[in-house]
Automatic annotation (TrEMBL):
This is Hypoxic response protein 1. InterPro entries: CBS_dom, CBS_dom_sf, Diverse_CBS-Domain. Residues 8-69, 76-134 form the CBS domain. It comes from the Bacteria. The keyword Isomerase does not apply. Keywords: CBS domain. The keyword Secreted does not apply. CDD domains: CBS_pair_HRP1_like (cd04622).
Length: 141
């Protein structure tokens, strides 16, 4: 049985909620990623308060006329962060991503530590064409 740990991208990195969006964008560029989990300021690097994406920075900050050097990652975090455990099945991953219409999912180990991220790309490497088409239809609907 294939698990979340088998398909995730290892080495996900946090960004503190207090960090500015210009620094978040720089870190995304350095890491070659489009999203970063944001750590809760009450428990830095241990507890997630959300995720920010490159699209969030552009649409919700820059296009809205805000200065990314003055807006923090925590300012953009909304709602309840979603995650999945390392031992979850691919079906569990799909269900979580589809039901919440999200494209990236942090993976947490038994000690509740961030160990990876699952993206659409990671799923595309694992799913059949039909499964992938169904996933895209449900997430982008």
């Amino acid at each position: 049985m294939t698990t979340a740990a088998d398909i995730m991208h290892h080495g996900a990195r946090w960004i503190p909620a207090t960090e500015t969006l210009d620094r978040a964008a720089q870190l995304m560029r350095e890491l070659g990623v489009g999203a970063l989990p944001v750590s809760d300021p009450r428990d830095p690097g241990e507890r997630m308060c959300g995720i920010i994406t490159d699209r969030d920075i552009v649409v919700r900050c820059i296009a809205a006329g805000h200065d990314p050097s003055r807006v923090t990652a925590g300012d953009l975090c909304q709602g309840t962060p979603r995650w999945i455990s390392t031992d979850a099945t691919v079906e569990d991953v799909l269900r979580e991503m589809e039901s919440h219409q999200i494209r990236r999912l942090p993976v947490i180990d038994d000690n509740k530590r961030l160990v990876g991220m699952i993206s659409e790309h990671d799923l595309a490497l694992q799913l059949s064409d039909d499964q992938l088409a169904q996933f895209v239809e449900r997430v982008y609907a």
